[in-house]
Amino acid sequence: MPVDLSKIKNLVIVMMENRSFDHMLGYLSLPPFNRADVNGLSTDPAWLAQFTNQDQGQSYPPFLSLDPYDMPDDFDPPHERPNMALNLGPLQNGVYPMNGFVSGIPATASADPEARKLVMSYFGAEQVPVSHFFAKNYTCCDHWFAALPAGTQPNRLMSMGGFSLIDINHDLLPQQDLVYDWLNRQGVSWRVYHQGIPFFTMMPGWVPEILLNDHFRSFTDLENDLMNTPPDQLPQVIFVEPTYQDAPHLGFATDEHAPSGVSNGQEFLMQVYNAVTKSRAFWQGAVMIVDYDENGAFFDHVSPPLIPTQKPPNAGWSNPADFVSLGLRTPAYVISPFVKPNTVSHDVLDHLSVLKFIGEKFGTNGSYSPVVDARPVASLSVVLNFDNPITDPPAAPALDAYLAGRPATPTTATVPAPDTSLKAGFQMAVTSLRGHGADRAHPKFGELLGKLEDQNTSAAGGTA
Asked: How far apart are CA 122 and CA 41, in angstroms?
């Protein structure tokens, strides 16, 4: 029987970066929480023997990390399609052994055992206070998987279109249909609130709209807009984007992408939550979804379901073979009046579950597209419960003491070296913004572009 979604007025969708479920939430099944309803980490000797990773003659079981602020030596474990295959290990009787996370790291990424072993680390509640707050007060999903065992761009294309024309990261993205296009065709209002450079600035066809259209607005406007605009005059679907670690940016990166720590992302998620809950009129019809694009090569013990993804027509995949499974588990939360507090969904979900949900809510006959509809994962609507709405959302935890431990805020623009296709793509996106007329006077990008220009001038021996 179809779920009655009429009480839902606005969706808020936040996609973070590159963390696995066990890395962020696996602690919930350990003391002192001992949550039997969470498929997380274990201290059982047989479990540890099964999932301890071997690398260069050393054994690496999962271990608690007490540092949510930084990764040493700018360590960012590679996580493209070939790397993910090494992490999973060879398929055996329909199950991946999940034992190649440390040994699969190329020596070119790091030869330091202290850095390499970090892929086996996990945080506790004190290191991820906002994630813990979400899991305690709303619904977390312990069988949410990345759509593909691949990297950032393919998974974000899957999440925002239901298919991907690429299977590894490129510099610029191919032009393909996105949920933005779908919402436009359906006459559904939408907006992106972005903290830094929006992700789809790497898809050149979207640059003029990102610069000039009210579909793309600064993150600093989010709380005021939600507080002072009636919900029926706000966009029906709201996407919120953090500041990306791999993009040129000001201040902290907040997407939780290594080598950044997770503390900045925890603050960002708190800010989004506070904006969503501050207006009771908005809250009473809202569903906020937080997920992660993929696991970023961090350990998870659950073998992904054997749900295949076929190569789309005219796709430029580096490997012509279809994907035979979903990607690895990632953290995910559904934050809404319409969930049961402190619950866990065990339904098999992936990024297309959000598109299925959007199709159910806004599509003709409840459909997003034949490809999305045919995906054998649940719609996110299965997580919802309308029996006893959470009319008074609890206050997020104070983070002052937690954030006091992080490094000082950068005063200059951060420009990651373009040593990956994704970083190169973001730098090309900056060039594209400039090519379409953005300069230091632009209301959203002017401060960043001005600092980048001044730093380039200074580096060249001129004056700012």
From this structure: 9
